[in-house]
């Protein structure tokens, strides 16, 4: 397992990879850290799971998610990955989409233990994490430098395989496209989040704007966002 593999990247969206590597049709799915539930909606409508349990630890966002009433096969639950309120061996697959590194330091290994507990034998865990590289990361680290927590997340994954909690099925490195119409959209999606309090004064805000606008063209700003998927299997 590698935290990065510069020569191995493919161009793909997260949904492309989920469709290829994670069979969901008719299955019980757990998504840990669903955020605004955009991916939850896509998976529920495109991949025909029996149910999706979508958890979120941000109380503000969770309350908003509870207002979603057009996803009958989705249940929104408040809670973190380090304490999953589900019985043992109750789900077929688990996803963490850019959320393992948001688990509190010291609790990431516990979160992976919880994932193994709720997975059925042979079940798959799809763990997608951002890689610390690229132009988009150069902007993010101005106000939210995640180098250390991303490293800790990878170490927890590596340890879980080394200790036999999971088997490593595949590692996929991919560049996901990201588009922002303008700085206002970037600001809304990346700065005005409720799960993290960013301390941004006026000079720093200006630096972030200038860094973003270097990539801005007539149709907006486009980025390639490097990511890594660790596809893990619970031993039978």
From TrEMBL:
The keyword Transit peptide appears for this protein: no
GO MF: methyltransferase activity
Domain of life from the UniProt record: Bacteria
Record keyword Kinase present: no
Annotated protein name in UniProt: SAM-dependent methyltransferase
Keywords, ordered alphabetically: Methyltransferase, Transferase
Pfam families: Methyltransf_25
GO biological process, one term: methylation
CDD domains assigned: AdoMet_MTases
Provenance organism: Candidatus Sedimenticola endophacoides
Domain Methyltransferase: 29-123
């Amino acid at each position: 397992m590698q935290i990065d593999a510069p020569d191995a990247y493919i161009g793909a969206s997260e949904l492309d990879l989920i469709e290829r590597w994670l069979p969901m049709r008719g299955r019980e799915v757990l998504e840990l850290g669903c955020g605004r539930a955009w991916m939850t909606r896509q998976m529920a409508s495109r991949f025909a799971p029996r149910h999706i349990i979508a958890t979120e630890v941000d109380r503000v966002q969770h309350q908003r998610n509870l207002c979603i009433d057009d996803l009958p096969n989705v249940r929104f639950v408040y809670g973190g990955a380090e304490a999953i309120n589900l019985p043992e061996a109750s789900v077929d697959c688990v996803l963490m989409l850019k959320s393992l590194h948001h688990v509190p330091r010291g609790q990431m290994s516990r979160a992976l233990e919880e994932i193994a507990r709720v997975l059925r034998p042979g079940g798959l865990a799809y763990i997608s994490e951002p890689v610390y590289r690229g132009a988009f990361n150069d902007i993010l680290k101005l106000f939210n430098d995640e180098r250390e927590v991303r490293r800790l997340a990878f170490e927890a994954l590596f340890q879980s395989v080394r200790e036999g909690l999971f088997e490593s099925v595949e590692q996929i490195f991919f560049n996901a496209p990201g588009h922002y119409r303008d700085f206002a959209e970037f600001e809304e999606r990346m700065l005005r989040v409720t799960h993290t309090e960013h301390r941004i004064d006026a000079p720093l805000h200006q630096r972030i704007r200038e860094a973003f606008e270097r990539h801005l063209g007539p149709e907006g700003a486009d980025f390639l966002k490097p990511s890594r998927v660790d596809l893990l299997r619970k031993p039978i």
